[in-house]
Amino acid sequence: MGRYVLRRLLQLIPVFLGTTFLIYALVWAIPQDPFAGKCGQRPCDPNYIAEMSQKLNLNDPLLVQYFKYLGNLITGDFGTTFNGVSVGEQISTSWPITLKMGLIALVIEAIIGITAGILTGLRKQGFLDNLVLVSTLFLISLPVFVTGFVLRLYLGPQGFDIMDTSVSSDPTIGELILPGFVLGSLSMAYVARLTRTSIVENRRADYVRTAIAKGQPQTRVVGIHLLRNSLIPVITFLGTDLGSLMGGAIVTEGVFNINGIGGLIFRGIQEKEGIMVTGIVTLLVLVYLLASLLVDLLYAVLDPRIRYE
Amino acid sequence: MEFRTRDGVAKVLNGVSYHVSAGETLAVLGESGSGKSVTAQTIMGILDMPPAFITKGTIKFRGEDLLEKSADERREVRGEGIAMIFQDALSALNPVFTVGFQIEEQLKVRRGMSKADARKRAVELLDQVKIPNAKGRISDYPHQFSGGMRQRAMIAMSLALDPELLIADEPTTALDVTVQAQIMDLLAEIQKERDMGMILITHDLGVVADVADRISVMYAGRIVEHADVYELFRAPGHPYTESLLESLPRLDLKGQELKTIKGLPPSLTNIPPGCPFNPRCPRAFDRCVSEVPAVHNLGMGRTSRCHIAEEVVARG
């Protein structure tokens, strides 16, 4: 197991280099003047251009630029944007908010999705089953920003005034529940369907029949024997989903006006702040890679038939 | 017993009746789809209802009708009164729990034993079914056991609550021949030791001959013949049994073509009128198509559902 983890961690290095280089190249190798429109209507002051080019290593070949950037990253320096804002500082204020929202989304989708999946998987073809199938289909086909706008509008003060849907600049967990729900809604639908299928598939398995034949109580047959096997694919999905939730936050944060990573990256792209975009995307890549490593390790814990040497 | 499916009602069991006493082994013999496993699962109460429906009948255990008991009472009987082992131990054991867990679970949940006591007892049980180094292997997962060992572990698990009746549903079908013999010996030994009743479901006449006291032969959801093992092999009382015995490979007939039973067993949604075996029966005559044969009593507890049972026995 230890050797496997080490091997996987070493494998992360080329993947990390490859993806980050790709992003760096895509952002900085655009055949366009990076200073276009940076200084209002007038062309930029040659001194400013010289200074920034020096700072961003724009005069070096792309590969050298990239490695210089990477070297700075390793020392924790994310660089500064064209108007002198520290990217590192921006990220450190926004990151916890997005992470919090992502985790809330994950918890919500896990709890609601798995519960719905179990209930419908055990009782196929009832009212509840149809309700879940239709509502998940609805959630899957609806774009997240529509779900977000609709919920925000109808639950908020302009609608039925059920809750305060505004989110402050330093949001509490309570404020993030609705955005988290919206962010996780799509995956929640997938989790519900995945769990349902998995339960239906396993519920006729021989080992379930054995557990019943042993005279084990129904709660144990379902809660221990059936569930442990059925949740293996679901947990794998949830693990990889953490990474996608971070990326999906862009839309949700936009709808709820949340000051998180998504908003930051959106503004970065809009204002052509390449250094901001590369910094955040690098971070997201890292989260994604670590999440999938965690899933692979978890897989071995959940299913003893899988062993890593 | 019926299964109500979209393709119609399958009359899976019809007029099946047998009894087993303590210390006795009854073999239930039949082809795939003859209803032998369904009978066992009906006794255990582990069939999904619906689609299964019990239209009438009784299942008496310790003198009480199991069908009149509540679901909870029936659950109490499972494992404690009647235990069951299955054909394929690899799929019948839960792949994500250790063998020890699955045995101890019975002791802890059903008997309220402490963790340490349950572990001790589980090791004893594994020892009894002759798993070498039981103590070391108790924390292994089913996939780490060989086929024969898995079936032994399955047997150990079924014995955990000291059942009075053990139903073995084709316990050796998934194993290779040498291991089959070992498992059958083990079952016979355990049964003798514990004076336990045993229902052995099989399609293998060879297995039956060694272990069983009595045999019920099933065809298309009914028992066509019931006899003492010795009597049945000496002179079968039903053409179906006769054909089964003839289709056994024999050393003294080496070089000759092996006899088979022509045709396929009937679909249970569409059982032929009269005697269900009539389309395949070498002795069939007009009456077999028009009239369902009654149970013929052949003496010494022997029965046969054939119009000409007496004639068949006499010729054997």
TrEMBL record, chain A:
Q: Which locations, inside or outside the cell, does it occupy?
A: Cell membrane
Q: Name one GO cellular component term.
A: plasma membrane
Major site of localization recorded for this protein: membrane
Which GO BP terms, alphabetically? transmembrane transport
- Which keywords fit this entry according to its UniProt record? Cell membrane, Membrane, Transmembrane, Transmembrane helix, Transport
Q: Kindly indicate whether the keyword ATP-binding belongs to this entry.
A: no
Q: Which PANTHER family match?
A: DIPEPTIDE TRANSPORT SYSTEM PERMEASE PROTEIN DPPB-RELATED (PTHR43163), DIPEPTIDE-TRANSPORT INTEGRAL MEMBRANE PROTEIN ABC TRANSPORTER DPPB-RELATED (PTHR43163:SF7)
Instruction: Give the protein's recorded name.
Output: ABC transporter permease
Q: Which organism is it from?
A: Lentzea aerocolonigenes (Lechevalieria aerocolonigenes)
Q: What is the lineage of its organism?
A: Bacteria, Bacillati, Actinomycetota, Actinomycetes, Pseudonocardiales
